Amino acid sequence: MELSDMPYLLLGALASVRDDSVKTVDDMVGKGKELAEGTVSKAKGIAEDKRLETTIQELVKKGKKESEELVEAVSKVIKDTLDSLGIVTKSDIKEIDNKLTDLEKKITGKPAKKKARKKPARKKPAKKKARKKPAKKA
């Protein structure tokens, strides 16, 4: 696999995860409809209602868990792709900044002060040098 194929790998992985999550959501909707239809015809007692409530709570928990897993899977694919492409992330920069601050503390014995960023000084344009005229041959 070539480096130029990485975006396609990411898109394929996202599509695969999306397809799996759509199937899971469709299954959950189907089960919910079955439960709703079944409870209308079978709603005869408190025990049935409690079982339904428990089932709904379990479905909600399962939905939340699968949603979190989906987010984690997508995040992992994106992170792996960024890592493989060598793109620096904010967390990488923050980690380096923390290490640098720790080193400064060890060297100076006191915490480093963060300096305000200065705008770069504006450079004056270079003066044009006078061209020497070639000597005329006689």
Description of the structure:
0% of the residues are buried. Helices cover 70% and strands 0% of the residues. With 138 residues, the chain is mainly alpha-helical. It has helices spanning 6-42, 46-85, 90-108.
Q: What is the string of SSEs from the N terminus onward?
A: HHH
Q: What's the gyration radius in Å?
A: 32 Å
Q: What is the number of E strands? A: 0
Morphology call: elongated
Q: Report on the biggest sheet.
A: none
Provide the β-strand percentage band.
under 5%
Number of helices: 3
Fraction of residues in helix: 55-70%
Low-confidence stretches: none
User: What structural category do the secondary elements indicate?
Assistant: mainly alpha
The overall pLDDT, averaged over residues, is 77
Give the N-terminus to C-terminus distance in angstroms. Answer: 71 Å
Quick summary:
70% of the residues lie in helices and 0% in strands.
Strand and helix map with partners:
Blueprint: H1 6-42, H2 46-85, H3 90-108
Helix pairs in contact: 1-2
What descriptors fit this protein?
70% helix, 138 residues, mainly alpha, elongated
